[in-house]
Design a protein that fits this description.
Helix content is about 35%, strand content about 15%. With about 260 residues, it is α/β, with parallel strands linked by helices. The chain has a seven-stranded parallel β-sheet. It has a three-stranded antiparallel β-sheet with strand order 4-8-7. The chain binds fructose -6-phosphate.
């Protein structure tokens, strides 16, 4: 796993966006996996800037989002479809039909999850999956105890995640208790994983994910199983990493080599 520690959130967002942009420039019809939440907002801002100022072209890109709240239609202000439209899709030249977010309002969640997995396969699989990390160590909404082989399905959110995400809702009781989430197994099939982690409240989870044992109790630890995972963390999120000096050393050596 590559660990890149950046001095602040802006630097982290620019560095992470550069990885996405390099892929899209190299493979214009890339399949990208996207996350919602606060962590990737800076990355998306930077992609918008690269589109506007450097002509980064998304016209042939296909995207799949990690998750959606059960019960929220796509036009609900707290739905993840709405989040993606507002924070990225409405500002770049991606055809809306190329963008996929799991449905939170299907009459048959199991069938709609199966369809989502099939759409990913039919698109040729995900080239690069963007991830955040929950303060309980989750990726997507794979809460502690989620099988490392899990697929897209309906999950029940932990109280900690409901607390964490209540900042986006008027009342804590408005936060849905269930979500549709890509599974850990689905995520591990992406050809490359890119995690962004920012802030002190992520330090313990990130340290456990990167340096602790691989366990379904911290589903982000599954990144250790992936041959091409890169983590961009700011100083605060990196605060719990025991091997930090070594990660910095590796980055210094690779800069010298290039
Ligand atoms: C959202 C998602 C979640 C978030 C995580 C961190 O699509 O997959 O795993 O990445 O909950 O959320 P923030 O970035 O808001 O701290």
């Amino acid at each position: 796993m590559d660990i890149v520690i950046c001095r602040n959130y802006d630097a982290l967002s620019r560095a992470a966006a550069r990885v996405v942009a390099d892929l899209v420039n190299h493979k214009p019809d890339a399949v990208l996996g996207f996350a919602t939440g606060s962590s990737p907002v800076g990355l998306y801002k930077e992609l918008i800037r690269l589109h506007e100022e450097e002509g980064l072209d998304f016209s042939k890109v296909t995207t799949f989002n990690l998750d959606e709240y059960v019960g929220l239609p796509g036009d609900h202000p707290q739905s993840y479809r709405h989040f993606m439209n507002q924070n990225l899709f409405d500002h770049i030249n991606i055809p809306v039909q190329n963008t996929h977010v799991p449905s939170g309002t299907s009459a048959n969640h199991a069938a709609s999850c199966e369809w989502y997995e099939k759409r990913i396969r039919d698109a040729g699989g995900i080239d690069l999956q963007v991830l955040g990390i929950g303060s309980d160590g989750h990726i997507a909404f794979n809460e502690p105890g989620s099988s490392l082989g899990s697929r897209t399905r309906m999950v029940t959110l932990t109280e900690q995640t409901i607390d964490d995400n209540s900042r986006f809702f008027k009342r804590k009781s408005d936060v849905p208790r269930h979500a549709i989430s890509m599974g850990v197994g689905t995520i591990l099939e992406a050809r490359k994983l890119l995690m962004v982690a920012s802030g002190k409240n992520k330090a313990a989870a990130l340290a456990a994910a990167v340096e602790g044992p691989i366990t379904s109790m911290i589903t982000a630890s599954a990144l250790q199983l992936h041959p091409e995972a890169i983590v961009f963390a700011d100083d605060d999120a990196a605060a719990g990493l025991k091997m930090r000096a070594y990660y910095d050393w590796i980055q210094k050596q690779s800069k010298k080599a290039n």
